[in-house]
From TrEMBL:
Organism of derivation: Candidatus Caccousia avicola
Gene3D superfamilies linked: 3.30.70.20, 3.40.50.360
Residues that span the membrane, as ranges: none
Keywords on record: Iron, Iron-sulfur, Metal-binding
SUPFAM superfamilies the UniProt entry points to: 4Fe-4S ferredoxins, Flavoproteins
Name recorded for this polypeptide: 4Fe-4S binding protein
Domain 4Fe-4S ferredoxin-type: start-end pairs: 193-217, 218-247
Pfam families: Fer4 (PF00037), Fer4_4 (PF12800)
Keyword field contains Amino-acid biosynthesis: no
GO MF term set: iron-sulfur cluster binding; metal ion binding
Length: 270
């Protein structure tokens, strides 16, 4: 299979998905001796476009996993923006050390429906957006080494005269979104929770500039639209002036810290 270009597409509010995707792209670019191009879908203005790819493009499509699925506000955007024409694709699902759930299959199905041909896929662990203690430091050196090995396997696959699409379950209905739990095991209901602005705010406006949903008012710096709990605003703030105080959200984070700090494994499909 002739590949002339590596195209890396990612949605990455807190950077973990971008890091994993770019690490894979850089290794593949070196192995194949071609350039890698990068397309962010993280900000609203990034998604005001359509991306069309051909048979000699290799697309790395990377998304975070939210509650065991693709982010529900982004999946329709992915489908609208990404268009292939028998284009080989490597879907990456990046999850926060709990579980990738059914997001890998959802990503494969969405991309196939958009004209892409999956030749490999992976689920990669990253630090959880909610807490540095969950998936701490991931992707780390071990993860990056595994991505190097994965890149070599993909390059070997692409060197074959005929590359067959991945074999995976296309028939079973997708699992529902994971229900977040509190420390007592009951459902954590924080769908309407929004970050609280503290007095330490210097009004630099970075939170509004970096909100993936464009939901933070640039004048008041209050969340006036949909909040997907991505934590971009919390992590980008140099004054640490944003935080979530919703009791159910905090209980869910405590539950994750209690049960999901042990090292989770990456998975690779070839």
């Amino acid at each position: 299979m002739k590949i002339n270009r590596i195209c890396t597409v990612f949605f990455s509010p807190t950077g973990g998905t971008k890091r994993a995707a770019c690490a894979l792209a850089e290794q593949l670019a070196a192995l194949l001796g071609i350039a890698a191009e990068y397309f962010s879908l993280t900000l609203p203005e990034d998604r005001q476009k359509t991306l069309c790819f051909g048979e000699q493009d290799l697309v790395i499509a990377a998304s975070p996993v939210y509650a065991g699925r693709l982010p529900n506000k982004l999946a329709p955007e992915y489908a609208r923006i990404l268009h292939g024409s028998h284009t080989p694709v490597v879907p990456l699902c990046v999850f926060g050390n709990r579980s990738p759930g059914d997001a890998p299959r959802e990503w494969l199905l969405l991309l196939e429906n958009g004209g892409f041909v999956p030749v490999a896929a992976a689920s990669i662990v990253s630090r959880h957006a909610f807490s540095d203690e969950i998936g701490a430091g991931r992707p780390d050196k071990e993860d990056l080494a595994a991505l190097c090995d994965f890149a070599r396997s993909i390059a070997e696959t692409l060197a074959q005269p005929e590359v067959k699409p991945l074999d995976y379950d296309r028939e079973t209905p997708l699992a529902p979104y994971y229900t977040p739990l509190k420390t007592d095991g009951t459902p954590a209901k924080f769908l309407k929770a929004k970050p609280v602005l503290l007095e330490s705010c210097t009004r630099c406006g970075l939170c509004a500039e970096q909100c993936p949903m464009g939901s933070i008012d640039r004048e008041t710096l209050l969340v006036s639209g949909v909040c997907i709990k991505c934590q971009s605003c919390v992590r980008v703030c140099p004054s640490h002036a944003l935080r979530f105080e919703d009791p159910d959200f905090l209980s869910h984070v405590a539950m994750l810290r209690e049960h999901y700090t042990a090292r989770a494994e990456n998975t690779f499909l070839l």
